Amino acid sequence: MTGEMDGQQIQDAVREKYARVAESAEGLFQYATGREGARALGYEEQTIAKAPPELMTSFCGVGNPLSLGHLRKGEVVLDVGCGAGFDLYVASRILGEHGLALGVDLTPEMVSVAKQNLEHAGVRNAEVRQATCEALPHESATVDVVISNGVFNLFPNKPRSFAEVFRVLKPGGRLQFADIVLDEDLPREIVGSLEAWSN
């Protein structure tokens, strides 16, 4: 239990919020989203400019996990909470035809949008599945790099989420993630708010 809520209630609230984000992130967050947000987070201008508009509409990242280390051609990368697919798109271009960009997202609407966006962008080395980071649908020790952008804060069972990440990583694999963290405790009424969990 988290406050008076259980993990399923929190996941349902997150799923509901991100079903709306799948249509457009504009106005749903207290920070810049879309192309403006990607620029503010340090993504390369050339990459942003080449990305199809629909790929950027739902982008709501909180950082740039790809800036935390270099991806190499031929690697397998898993994006946990891939959203509409922008980080997958960027990773797929780096990995090349022999690499594989895998994505999972909790929200069926986001999975559908990501698949459409990546297909429209001509990406052939990516796969997207619906799943939670607390139960990844991948075999153990099959992924070179796990990336994530603003996702772990949305799941109540962080130890389980990170255990799953390390389960799927190959020995010597890397985790590159950007997220929101607190530097002080929140008031009880906020901790117990479903809206706060999904924002």
TrEMBL record:
A single Gene Ontology molecular function, please? arsenite methyltransferase activity
Record's keyword terms, sorted: Methyltransferase, S-adenosyl-L-methionine, Transferase
Please name the InterPro entries in this protein's record.
Arsenite_MeTrfase-like, Methyltranfer_dom, SAM-dependent_MTases_sf
The answer to whether keyword Zinc-finger applies is no
What Pfam families does UniProt report for this protein, alphabetically?
A: Methyltransf_31
Q: What is its EC number?
A: 2.1.1.137
* Every Methyltransferase domain range: 72-193
A GO biological-process term = methylation
Q: Which domain of life is it from?
A: Bacteria
Q: For this protein, what reaction is catalysed?
A: arsenic triglutathione + 3 [thioredoxin]-dithiol + 3 S-adenosyl-L-methionine = trimethylarsine + 3 [thioredoxin]-disulfide + 3 glutathione + 3 S-adenosyl-L-homocysteine + 3 H(+); arsenic triglutathione + 2 [thioredoxin]-dithiol + 2 S-adenosyl-L-methionine + H2O = dimethylarsinous acid + 2 [thioredoxin]-disulfide + 3 glutathione + 2 S-adenosyl-L-homocysteine + 2 H(+); arsenic triglutathione + [thioredoxin]-dithiol + S-adenosyl-L-methionine + 2 H2O = methylarsonous acid + [thioredoxin]-disulfide + 3 glutathione + S-adenosyl-L-homocysteine + H(+)
Q: Which SUPFAM superfamilies does this chain map to?
A: S-adenosyl-L-methionine-dependent methyltransferases
Family the UniProt entry places it in: Belongs to the methyltransferase superfamily. Arsenite methyltransferase family.
Annotated protein name in UniProt: Arsenite methyltransferase
